[in-house]
Design goal:
binds thymidine-5'-diphosphate; 5 strands; alpha/beta; 10 helices; about 10% strand; single chain; globular
Length: about 210
């Protein structure tokens, strides 16, 4: 059932590793909450059992191949969308705005670099058909800068080296051209985090109509 008849908006954040999207998302949602906008924040890989397997693959605790990883991401995403208890569609239909840290463009940009992109796109077709973002905010950062941040965090994951990150960034930009029907807003990561936040708020507030 929808609150006031309005379905929530689905807003996705994308970027290479260490782009600062999680921190920016936190500040944004705090700001929106203070304005009385109802928000639910979620992320992929998720915290479900599917996501837990993926985390183990990413840290190397489970050694597996790229096809399996891509398929697991697609499965995790479908459950994320459709789960009857806490799925994204359920929240949206309750009138809640959902903010998701990574979605299928991550699969295309990351996993599509290792296994045929068309196969990854096909795997994610059911997700794209079920739920497209109202807007995808891409936080754009120079990989040299983001990898310096990631190195400070300590333990690195499967895709976290600079050459790979440069490739992933190129993949994202190719994807924006290949999928012009995806509504993507590119927000540059500025040295001053507050400046990035200001630009991000402008995009998101316009989408939410607040
Ligand atoms: P995440 O925890 O968002 O990393 P970060 O906080 O550094 O942005 O994502 C974990 C990793 O999973 C990240 O390297 C990107 C990768 N990933 C894929 O390869 N495919 C996907 O579909 C998703 C959602 C993430």
């Amino acid at each position: 059932m929808e609150k006031n008849g309005a379905r929530g908006k689905f807003i996705v954040f994308e970027g290479t590793d260490g782009s600062g999207k999680s921190t920016q998302l936190k500040s944004l949602v705090k700001y929106l909450g203070e304005k009385g906008v109802s928000c639910f924040v979620t992320h992929e890989p998720t915290d479900s059992p599917f996501g837990a397997i993926l985390r183990s693959c990413l840290t190397g605790r489970i050694d597996t191949d790229e096809h399996t990883i891509a398929a697991l991401f697609a499965a995790d995403r479908l459950d994320h969308i459709h789960n009857p208890v806490n799925g994204i569609l359920k929240k949206l239909n309750e009138g809640v705005n959902v903010f998701c840290d990574r979605y299928y463009l991550s699969s295309f940009a990351y996993n599509g670099g290792f296994v045929p992109l068309d196969w990854v796109v096909a795997l994610n077709a059911p997700a794209r058909e079920a739920l497209k973002p109202d807007v995808t905010v891409y936080i754009d950062i120079d990989p040299a800068q983001s990898m310096a941040r990631v190195a400070k965090r300590g333990e690195t994951e499967r895709y976290e080296d600079i050459e790979r990150q440069k490739q992933i960034r190129r993949n994202y930009f190719d994807l924006f051209k290949r999928f012009p029907d995806e509504n993507v807003a590119i927000v540059k990561s500025m040295d001053d985090k507050n400046e990035t936040q200001k630009n991000l708020r402008a995009v998101v507030c316009k989408t939410l109509g607040v």
